[in-house]
Amino acid sequence: MADALPVTPQEEAGLPDKRRVAASFSRAAASYDGVASLQREVGEALLARLPHEAPACWVDLGCGTGYFTRALAARFPHASGVAVDLAEGMLRHARPLGGATQFIAGDAEHLPLRNSMCDLVFTSLALQWCGDLAAVLAEARRVLKPGGVFAFTSLCVGTLQELRDSWQAVDGFVHVNRFRRFDDYQQQCGESGLRLLHLNTETRTLYFPDVRSLTHELKALGAHNVNPGRPGGLTGRARLRALAAAYERLREPAGLPASYRVVYGVLQKES
Fold it and tell me: Which residues touch 11 (CB under 8 Å, ≥6 apart)?
């Protein structure tokens, strides 16, 4: 069911509203790790892309439940760490599990961090929720020391395309979160003032026995639809049956496919 928050200027501009994003992920804090296998795989792949030099201080931006906060602490045991997330519920979950010196509520587009304070900003599968990617890149550049690294993963167009196409066969509402084009990541990273070390995209596909299993997982992740144009109220049974019938045409031997177009990027602040 859609919440009762009024339409905001961000939504009028076609961007997800940060309050809805924060509230959605706060509600999902307890269920997130139980269904986040893809998120862990993607984050581990980003860890493998990091430069070998150990940072003295790192930031886990969009730390969520703190899984990679703890992974960064284990990888860099002599460094200090700061975990930042927009969702207070995620921070309440992550804080008792440790891994960082500080857990801070903050917006990636307006970081509550001082200039040139860290050697690494690590963020995995958070930037797709940020309306202003250029602002995120500018903030990363600001808080990094010269020579510091900004490493990220995100999602681009093509993500959940099967679900999007199946809904399009049912009605004209926005049922699936919108994602940037890979070209947008290329352009904005190139214009960020950071040196681009690595940028690529790959497709990862999950399989589900039925549509309900997919939508349940998206809700448990906090990643269900928060975009403007989404339908209000409950989705009727007739539409859900029509969705299931449309999606069924895409079934493969392994099940119903759900594709994720993952973007990997590593940038460096010039010395």
Answer: 17, 227, 228
Strands 144-155 and 80-85: unpaired
State the Cα–Cα distance between residues 49 and 180, nearest whole angstrom: 22
Block residue for tokens 């891994």:
99
Beta bridge partners of 111: none
At the top level of CATH, which class does the domain 9-160+177-205+259-268 belong to?
alpha beta
> 105 forms bridges with which residues in the sheet?
85
Q: Residue written as tokens 């890149």?
A: 137
CB atoms within 10 A of CB 213: 15
Indicate the domain borders of the chain. Answer: 9-160+177-205+259-268
The span from the CA of 158 to the CA of 212, in Å, is 21
The one-character DSSP state at 254 is: T
pLDDT band at 2 (very low <50, low <70, confident <90, very high): very low
Q: What share of the chain is helix, strand, coil (3-state, %, to 5)?
A: 40, 25, 35
Tens of pLDDT, residues 96-126: 999 999 999 999 999 999 999 999 999 999 9
Coil vs helix vs strand at 2: coil
